[in-house]
Amino acid sequence: MRSVKKSKQAFTLKIHRLIWNVHAERLPEGYDRVPGYIYILGLMVKIPGADIGMNIRSFNSKVYVANVEQQSMAATSCLMGDCIVAVDNVPVSTVATCREKIVAAFTNNNFVSASLKYFPFAEIVVEGVGIVIFIQRKGKMMIKKKYK
């Protein structure tokens, strides 16, 4: 790359970017599907020099994506409010376990597959330690509950 840059000649750089989200056919053993939720299998691929770019928080023994940085490895598959059910088919219920599994997978395999759960008609916003859940009903957004 340096030689091309120093040569001052025009060049074409073709980048293949993996974005892979498919419906999860199988969930971890012992995990039941909740009606109304959509389950997807997201793939994050290690990109040299890039950050994972995802903050996670735990609430009611579930791990939620609190924030996703743009153009990060997590941005290819995760959105704010997604619930991380499993990492590499291992169920996670705490932030420490989830973080440990993600880092280990990136270290060993250069990719992570995560089972994600989201509710298509709700927006879950994570603010610091509190969670505000907005539910859309008949075109109106209602605050269900706020935890501090």
List the helices and strands and how they pair.
Blueprint: H1 2-7, E1 20-23, E2 38-45, E3 54-59, E4 62-68, E5 83-87, E6 90-91, H2 95-109, E7 111-118, E8 122-127, E9 130-137, E10 140-146
InterPro entries: PDZ (IPR001478), PDZ_sf (IPR036034), T15H9.4-like (IPR040264)
Protein name: PDZ domain-containing protein
Domain PDZ: 51-106
What would you give as the CATH superfamily of one domain?
A: PDZ domain
CA-based shape? elongated
Series of H and E elements: HEEEEEEHEEEE
SS elements, strand count: 10
CATH class of one domain: Mainly Beta
Rounded radius of gyration (Å): 18 Å
Averaged pLDDT, please? 75
Helix content estimate: 10-25%
CATH architecture of one domain: Roll
Please identify the structural class as seen in this structure.
mainly beta
Major sheet description: 7 strands, antiparallel
InterPro entries: PDZ, PDZ_sf, T15H9.4-like
Organism: Parascaris equorum
Protein name: PDZ domain-containing protein
